[in-house]
Amino acid sequence: MTKKLKFYLSTIYLSFLIVFIYLFYEYGFPNNYSHILFLLSVTLVLNNYSIFFNYITEIKTSMTLPVLISSFYFINPFWVGIITAIGTITYKEEIKYFVWYKFLFNRSSIFLASISGALIFNITRPVLDGNSFPFLSILLASLAYFIINNFFVYTVINLADNDVNKMTLVSYFRELSKNLITSYFLGLILLASYIYFSKVLFVLIIILLFIIKDFFYSRLQQMNSYTQIIESFLKVIDSKDHYTEGHCERVAKYTYHLCNEMNLSRAKSEKIISIAKIHDIGKIYVDDHILRTSDNLNDQEYEEIKRHTEYGYQLLKDIDLINDELDIILYHHERWDGKGYPEGLKGEAIPVGARILTACDSLDVMITGRSYKPPMTKEEVIEEFEKCAGGQFDPEIAQKIIELIKDGYFDDKFKSEEKIKELELAFDY
Ligand SMILES: [Fe+2]
Ligand SMILES: [Fe+2]
Questions:
Q1: Domains of the chain (ranges plus CATH)?
Q2: What are phi and psi of 389, to 5 degrees?
Q3: What band does 162 get if pLDDT is binned at 50, 70 and 90?
Q4: Is the previous residue joined to 77 through a cis bond, with omega within 30 degrees of 0?
Q5: Separation of 211 CA from ligand 1 center, angstroms?
Q6: d(CA 75, CA 79)
Q7: Nearest alpha carbon to residue 144 among 230, 89, 77, 233
Q8: Membrane-crossing residues (predicted)?
Q9: Mean per-residue pLDDT for 314-321?
Q10: Alpha carbon distance 234, 228 (integer Å)
């Protein structure tokens, strides 16, 4: 654990302690426990059966906010904090694999976030909503809870230096904001049923949601089989093409960052990233000796290796689950200037996914090197992209890659200068 992270965690724990003591003196014990016990049990049950699951970033969102919205309305801020802090304890992740500092961080951050929401609700309600249904104050309270809670989590992810989850603050919040909107409306429905009808209707609506959940779940399962198919193909590629082991997976990672920078729909980005993972699948049909001796190929052998794009396309085109966007595989060696293969497509006639993939594919070759050329330094790669923008690469995409490289996104992938020198010597130039 880094010093920064330790300091950050201690600050959160301390803030939790101070706010807890202060609010306890302010609000003390409640007169009526029925709302508290009811909402606490609902939160606990729902949190251990999350409904929505974002499979790409693996960020789990749950029913916390929709139920929290009713807590804002019925319960004072201190007890809202207690309900949320206890109600969000998940058995599978937190009790079974108990790590005290994680557990304490989760409790403290969610306590602080939920009491912030509750305080904002109490302050803004008389001004914004008066005696009417509190649409606006709930919106503000939900926003406050959402921003504070996710900011805590975002900061801890980034300080923990976890490569997989690193994303920009904007893309992190953009990803989650869809859940915020759903949660807000769900929360309003639950609150209205609680105020105007009863706890019974509140529970019935939640049961209804669980029935809908099955629908989401079957969709999720479909996505899982999709991922499994991709992963199996990935293993096949690696076993066939040892020299480029890990190439497809790295290319997919670059593609992920690039897609985040481009204005593509989420569904499209996900497809491109998955296809990137298996873009060289056609190589399984190319003769082993050609793959292994890719430095000194004769014309006929070179023609054969070029056919991997078509082989890959032909192999996958009949699998319904993945045949969308498959032309990315077919065209991932086309060039912006029309000098690529297999069809010599030019400029925007090449699908955008294929243009992205071409750039990421080349980026990996530059960074890792091949048997016939040593790896490049960061500066050399930037130069290469500047030089080839408008030639091999779509100029806009080349520019985006340069920005990502300059922002340090791929720093951990570049080899050190000493290592490159060592490799260059071995190359016999
Ligand atoms: Fe390729
Ligand atoms: Fe490739």
A1: 3-196 (1.10.1760), 223-427 (1.10.3210.10)
A2: -65, 130
A3: low
A4: no
A5: 44
A6: 6
A7: 77
A8: 7-25, 37-56, 68-91, 103-123, 135-157, 184-212
A9: 82
A10: 10
Determine which of 9-13, 75-79, 413-417 has the lowest per-residue pLDDT on average. Answer: 413-417
User: What's the burial of 340, exposed, middle or buried (CB within 10 Å: 0-12/13-18/19+)?
Assistant: buried
Distances (CA, A) of 55 to 83, 252, 401: 28, 16, 25
CA of 251 to the centre of ligand 2 (A): 7
Ligand found nearest the CA of 364: 2
How far apart are the CA of 417 and the centre of ligand 2, in A? 24
Q: Give me the residue label for tokens 């479909």.
A: 222
226 Cα to the center of ligand 1, angstroms:
21
% of the chain beyond a pLDDT of 90: 40
- pLDDT score recorded for residue 417: 76
Q: What distance lies between CA 207 and its chain's CA centroid?
A: 29
Please work out, in degrees rounded to the nearest 5, the angle formed at the alpha carbon of residue 103 by the alpha carbons of 97 and 106: 130
Round the average pLDDT of the chain to a whole number and report it: 84
Distance 280 CA to ligand 2 centre (A): 5
Query: Residue 304, class by beta-carbon neighbours within 10 Å (0-12 exposed, 13-18 middle, 19+ buried)?
Result: middle
Q: What is the DSSP letter of 28?
A: -
Provide CB contacts within 8 A for 241, sequence distance 6+: 247, 280, 283, 291
- CA gap 19, 16 in Å, rounded: 5
Cα 326 to middle of ligand 1, angstroms: 14
Tell me how many degrees the CA angle 57-184-102 measures, rounded to the nearest 5: 45
The rounded Å distance from CA 57 to ligand 1 centre is: 27
Whole-number Å distance, alpha carbon 165 to ligand 2 midpoint, is 24
Per-residue DSSP letter, 92: I
Give pLDDT, residue 13.
93
How close is the Cα of 172 to the center of ligand 1, in Å?
Answer: 31
Question: Residues 25-58: pLDDT tens digits?
Answer: 988 888 778 899 999 998 888 877 655 444 333 4
CB atoms within 10 A of CB 346: 14
329 CA to middle of ligand 2, Å? 10
How many Å lie between the centroid of ligand 2 and the Cα of residue 407?
A: 24
Residue the block writes with tokens 């914004």: 128
Reading the block at residue 32, the tokens are 């009526």
Q: Alpha-carbon distance 122 to 74, whole Å?
A: 11
> Which residues are close to ligand 2, an ion, with C-beta < 5 A?
280, 361
